[in-house]
Amino acid sequence: MDDNMHAPTVASGPTTTGGADRDPSKLTMTELMQEKERIEEELSALSSVLTSHGVNMNSSLTTFDDFPRADIDVAQIRTIRSKIILLRYDHKEVMKYLEKGIHDHFSNLQRAQSDTSSAGNTNGLNGTHSSLTGNTSSNAAILGPPFARVNSVAAASPADQAGLKTGDHIRSFGAINWINHERLTKVAESVQQNEGRTLIVKVLRQNGSDATELDLELVPRRDWGGRGLLGCHLVPL
């Protein structure tokens, strides 16, 4: 018998009072980011509850003869699953407006840069890095704010060989950025999926009162003599 027949009927709408009446289309970019973080934290907490019961979103809640299992709190698990489904929908909606806002913001910045360039006000870039002065500050803004900090780097590791240093702030890690890193879980997935491949890591490095943008080439690998594929520890900002 289909498990969904036992699923509870739950009214649509926000799952927590913190998100009540928060229409994503009416939120500012800052509020959208806060809502994104709130939803992800709640999803993580609810998933942990399922894990503590030894089940996930797809585990059967019935016995072979279609009776509710006696070894778990079936009612609680069904309720949590319903909340997760609603939260996933909320997250998708928030991401839609957040990505639209970012796209519009970047388009405006690029348009402003184009207008400035046509007026003859341009700045060159040296090699793979640039100081955050003049128009390069606009280039940095296009990347979005940093979302992670390098907490430690092991000697001779892939991270060390790429040039990462303790204290560096990560703006993007391959295709992962401040919008979609999901509390760094997507960074871990990207590392696992790109073992032996080059990932471009955009870094903001503070040098006293100055900051420098760096594009580093990082190749995740496991044969460097230490733990993990990177040899560094990242913490979310």
UniProtKB/TrEMBL annotation:
Keyword set, alphabetical order: Chaperone
Q: Signal peptide position in this chain?
A: none
**What GO biological process terms does the UniProt entry carry, in alphabetical order?**
proteasome regulatory particle assembly
Per the record, GO CC terms? cytoplasm; nucleus
Q: Which Gene3D superfamilies match?
A: 2.30.42.10, 6.10.140.1710
UniProt keyword annotation of Chaperone present: yes
Is rRNA-binding given among the entry's keywords?
no
Residue limits of the PDZ domain?
A: 150-205
Q: Where is the Nas2 N-terminal domain?
A: 30-107
Q: Where is this region: Disordered?
A: 1-25, 110-132
Its family remark reads: Belongs to the proteasome subunit p27 family.
Name of the protein in its database record: Probable 26S proteasome regulatory subunit p27
